[in-house]
Write a structure and sequence with these properties.
With 204 residues, this protein is α/β, with parallel strands linked by helices. The protein is 55% helix and 12% strand. The chain has 10 helices and 5 strands. Strands 2-1-3-4-5 form a 5-stranded parallel β-sheet, with helices on both faces. The longest helix is centred in the middle third of the chain and has 25 residues. The radius of gyration is 18 Å and the shape is globular.
Length: 204
C-alpha cells in the first residue's frame, strides 16, 4: 500500500509508520509538493493520503480540493490531521471530501487501525476485481452512454474533459460514474478503470 504523508512536521507520523507499519511512505512538507508528487506519478497514484491542515505555502484545505478534483485521486482515501477541535471545522473537512479526521498529537494505535482498515478494503476490492474481470457480462450491464464514458475514463480524461467530449454536464458524468460503480460493485474511479481495461472496453 502506497501512502503519501503531507505534513510540515512529519517526524512523529513518519516514525509511527516506520516503527509499526512497514508501509511504502513518501513524505512532503506542503501542499505544492504534494501536487507535484501526485501529478508526476503513474497510475494508480496513492492508496492513502495523510494530510495535515495547517501547513505553509498551501494548506490542507487547498490541497484537499486539488486531490478531489484530480481524476487520479478523486476517490483516494484521505485522513486529515488537525489540532482543531471545533465541530464546525470537522464538518467542513468531511463536506470537502475528507474520509476521516485524526487529532494531534496522534495516537499510534488509532492511526494504524485506520490504515489497516484501508488496507483490508483495498485487498477485498483487488480480490473482487481479479475474479470479476473474467465475466464478459459486466460489459453488457452498462448503457451505451456508460460505455462511452468508461472509454474516456480509460483514456485518463478528467470529469470536465469527459463532459466536454460527450456534451453533457459534469454532474451527469458523476451520476453515470456512480451507476457504473454500483453495477460493477467497485468503490472508486481507479478500480472501475482497472476493470474497464481488463474488459478491453476501449476496443469495443
Amino acid at each position: 500500500m502506497r501512502i503519501l504523508l503531507v505534513d510540515d512536521e512529519p517526524q512523529l507520523t513518519q516514525q509511527i509508520l516506520a516503527d509499526y507499519g512497514g508501509y511504502n511512505v513518501e513524505v512532503v512538507t506542503d501542499g505544492q509538493q504534494a501536487i507535484q508528487k501526485i501529478t508526476a506519478q503513474q497510475k494508480p497514484v496513492y492508496d492513502l493520503i495523510i494530510l495535515d491542515i495547517n501547513m505553509p505555502i498551501m494548506n490542507g484545505w487547498q490541497t484537499l480540493q486539488f486531490i478531489r478534483n484530480h481524476s487520479d485521486t478523486a476517490d483516494t482515501y484521505v485522513i486529515l490531521l488537525t489540532s482543531e477541535t471545533e465541530e464546525s471545522s470537522l464538518i467542513r473537512g468531511l463536506r470537502r471530501g475528507a474520509d476521516e479526521y485524526l487529532m494531534k498529537p496522534l495516537s499510534p494505535s488509532r492511526l494504524l487501525a485506520h490504515i489497516d482498515a484501508v488496507a483490508r478494503r483495498l485487498e477485498a476490492h483487488t480480490t473482487q476485481d481479479s475474479t470479476s474481470t473474467t465475466d464478459p457480462g459486466l460489459f453488457m450491464l452498462l448503457t451505451q452512454r456508460e460505455k462511452e464514458l468508461m472509454k474516456c475514463v480509460v483514456e485518463g480524461l478528467s470529469n470536465q474533459r469527459i463532459a466536454e467530449k460527450l456534451v453533457i454536464s459534469e454532474t451527469t458524468v458523476k451520476n453515470h460514474l456512480a451507476s457504473v460503480y454500483r453495477k460493477w460493485q467497485v468503490s472508486n474511479r481507479n478500480q472501475a478503470a482497472f476493470l474497464a481495461q481488463k474488459l478491453k472496453i476501449a476496443e469495443r
